[in-house]
Write a structure and sequence with these properties.
This protein has 411 residues and is an alpha+beta fold. 57% of the residues lie in helices and 16% in strands. Strand 9 and strand 10 form a beta hairpin. It is elongated and about 105 Å long.
Amino acid sequence: MMEARGFRQALRQLRQHKLRTLLTLLGMVFGVGAVIAMLSISEGGRQEALRMIDSMGLRNLIVEAVEFDPETLQEIRAQSVGLYAGDIEAIMTTLPMVEAYAAAKKIKTWDVYSLEGRANTEVLAVSSEYFSLGNMITRNGRTLADDDNRNYAQVAVVGAQAAEDLFPDGLAIDKLIKVNHLWLRVIGVLDKPEEGKKEFAGITLADDSNRIFIPLEMARKRLKIDSLESPLDMLKLKLKEGTDTASAARALDYLLKKRHGASADYRLIVPAALLKQEEQTQQIFTIVMAAIAGISLLVGGIGIMNIMLATVLERTPEIGLLRAVGARKKDIRDQFLMESVTIAGIGALIGIVFGLFLAFTVQLFANWPVAFSLFGIVISVVICLLTGVVFGLYPAIQAAELDPIKALQRD
């Protein structure tokens, strides 16, 4: 009850000096807004990085064949045939930290259609482990199995977008699609991945939702592949749990350089290293934004102290009168503290709205993901209120320690 009365009295006092109160509020508003926007942007970036790394596989090492112009490719092929099955055998034999692998080859297409529609999609010939190593989940049906490769089965798994283009009615399982000259039966449809950025640390991520996946061995046997091309375009290697990815990457790179005659016809991607690099970048960004938010709150705190000190001077006779009629030092101190906390609280509430608006603006114009958390909002409000207490304490003590007689005599 006493607190409610003190709050109402604090509001009345602040309304008497609207402009001064508003200017004091701005520091708190910008401070809280900056904290909320910083946490939202940082958390959004972290979640987006985790999503993209999850699609690559945190425990995976990825080897991609490098594309060259025809003349350079002729020279490269004199030293190396590119990524091929022999590399896989050597890796699995030589590097005990690798527990599983998946291979993939892009198929050049000129026509992909079904009896119900056409699709401008990429066709990828893959081994059966490709889906599990890429954390890909089917919405309907199943993924490719080892038997599909062994038996050269003319089957396909289609991404969500490719399925919509080829089968507008939404029913794709057991229907036929034609890739170039080859008819394939659909055995699975992948779940639609979350929307998000398609580039991470300079690496463009493939859109699996607009892909068709077919058995690798069947593609080698029944679809034409240029003899100069690398037999495989990608290898995914899953490391055993607890393996140091940096050491494994160095060992893999050394092995492939020996086998490929030191020709730079592949590139090695280490998702764990990319995640670490992204986290370091996010950490620097967070520190910079935290410093900006801290400065804003500091300016807001100084503003609160200034306005409260000015208020003490203006209300000195009033303080003397209150003391004369029986008000305790604690009552005076608490009332002035309530006013400073009220300023901070109002600034925090407005700052929440400003911070959310700022984060949405960044998301809209910078195409940067944001993620809001109740924890971040609570932390920013608590910090703001503590700022009000800390910077309002000195003026409150000054008011409480005034001599009642001298205060009454001051004009």
